[in-house]
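Q: I'm teaching a short session on how sequence maps to structure, and I want students to see two examples side by side rather than one. Could you give me a first protein with its sequence written out and its structure tokens following it? Keep the formatting plain so it prints cleanly on a handout.
A: Of course. Example one:
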Amino acid sequence: MRDTRIKLGMNYRLIPDALRPIAEKIEAQQRISESEALALYHSTDLNALGLMASEVRRRKNGEFASYIINRYINYSNICVLSCQFCAFAAKKRDAHAFERSIEDIISTVRDALSLGITEVHMVGGLHPTLKANWYLELLRGLRALDPELHIKAFTAIEIRHLAQRIFKRPIRETIEILRDAGLCSFTGGGAEIFDPQVRDEICRGKESAEEWLDVHRIWHQMGGRSTCTMLYGHIETLEQRVDHLRQLRELQDETGGFTGFVPFAFQPQTTILAHLKPATAVEQLRNLAVCRIFLDNIDHLTAYWVSMGLPLAQVSLAYGVDDLHGTIMEEKIFHMAGAKTPQEQTVAMLEHVIREAGRIPVQRDSYYRPIRRERGKADDIERELVCA
């Protein structure tokens, strides 16, 4: 009898004995526990982790790897918070403070539309004085540029700020107003690490995990979709990472509203936490693999090349990743923290690194649905999957 495990890519000769029970659960499409996730985090066998994560990725997404043509907009970095991990936020009188006008933002997005973007991704600080009408005029102005443009904007932290301090309305009602003005989906930022002790040390005063999760829960209950994130590689323990993933998995079990997961490696260079060592390449790949295996109910895993660099993001395609995010065009938050990566990537470069890794490039929309993909090889693989 033919060994179907080899056919599926799980060559057990390359899995150490200690990890084989977990590999068998993955093959059987069974959920792994928190203790098993910790065991994976403690493993030094990176190749074995890649094999197991790739099995999950292959089952969910085949051999395709996606990207989106998008444009980042950071509308302002003025913020009422002073998070220790953040080099982006500023007070109004700080030299690096900025606040873009509605006209400037709309002009920037209009120019980007001519380059083929399908999404504008917009976040900022918790601005203390911008009025409710400013946000509504901005959303309406962007919507007027192109009704098909997907406006992905605001973190759960921003939404709570807008509801409580700017609109002074309940969260659900605030979201309804923003959606009527043009908002299409939320971003996943602001989650950091959910553990309250970690939050107290790196982002004191920021909303709790329960408050972050509740904003996404409300949005999902309203039929909306969003991404989710984790900022790792600072003061958190592995147990706290797993607990963060557990809470995301539980909310996804409840709502099914998360389209993808985007873990960020912390950039310490220009922050108060500059004494910390950045996450190594091995740690980043291990983290991606564990996340792919543990988050069995979230279909897509994104490698954020802005924080990890495109070469390592390319390698991560062998560790459970099926998405390389997007063209970005301008990113400030990670670069103000010390990231040395480019400000943008071209479609040609994203497709090149995907092909070089042996995967099939797919342009996607904001919900990870394919817009355009290469034919030929894609057709062959789809036929193989159907025959199997």
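Q: Perfect. Now a second example for contrast.
A: Example two:
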Amino acid sequence: MIDRFNRRIEYVRVSLTDRCNLRCRYCMPESGVTKLAHSEILTYEEVLRVIRLLARLGIKKVRLTGGEPLIRMGIVDLIRSIKNLDGIERVVMTTNGVRLASMAEQLIDAGLDGINLSLDTLDGKIFQAISRRDCFDRVLEGLNKILSLGMRDVKLNCVPLAEINDDVDDLIELIRDRDVKLRFIELMPIGLARDFKGLPLSTLRDRIEQKFGRLMPIDSTEAQAGPAKYFRLNGFVGAIGFIDALEDKFCSTCNRVRLTAEGFLKLCLSAPAGLDVKRLMRGGLDDEQLMLRLSSAIYNKPLEHAFDGAIELNDRRRMYQVGG
């Protein structure tokens, strides 16, 4: 569907849980995490109902997120069910990779089209310092497993933090002979991330070119639709992408909405406004009425985020409560 600013909304990110098996410092506190009660989280039947109606409104791509989506039971069957919905062309997932190796074959068999793997460093000690967990070897095993099984759409997501994981040479070397996209994502001022200093991506680009040579833009017909701007380095198989929502605001081309684990349709990552879909469904709204409410909400999607403006305009949820 088209929103009031003439953007075609074709993509929904669905958070399946607010729980995670890591405790990354810029995302979750080490302890004392208030978790949603099981009854507050959308059932898979409710998730499928919302996606089915969104598909009727023009949504074509679904990304499953968390928390960590692979810790929710039954996710393989959910992927298979989403793939069977009319109008849905792609089902992809963002994961921390801790359980990926053990589930990779099942995920591919269910029809999963792509994996975004959160990987902030290839240094095991830095990984543990950021994530507060000793899981680096399992994450790397998951990456190698999914590549060995032939998945073509594999992306690595790195959030560079100043003086923590801002040496990215090893990550870049990883894509020298691997056909994956390495994306550097600007630290977003959400929740605990406000306590950290992100490395400006313009600075990172300069560092990469000084070490590895010129970053050559990839023609837009080669890159998948999305916020990342992709480049290649001479002699490298993989590509490098930059997602800098603050330095290079791309709200005018935003094509997504988000469904949180508790059933709230978020229209913008920063804005608290949206639609309490769970309340409407559990209140007895039929499909046609619910679709009208979804359509009206999406039509009124905000023009742009407010991360660079008044803090009171931003959502107070932490990233794991939003779904990224």
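Q: What should students look for in example two?
A: Point them to this: The CA atoms of residues 185 and 243 lie 5 Å apart. Also worth mentioning: Residues 11-322 form a domain with the TIM Barrel fold (CATH 3.20.20.70).
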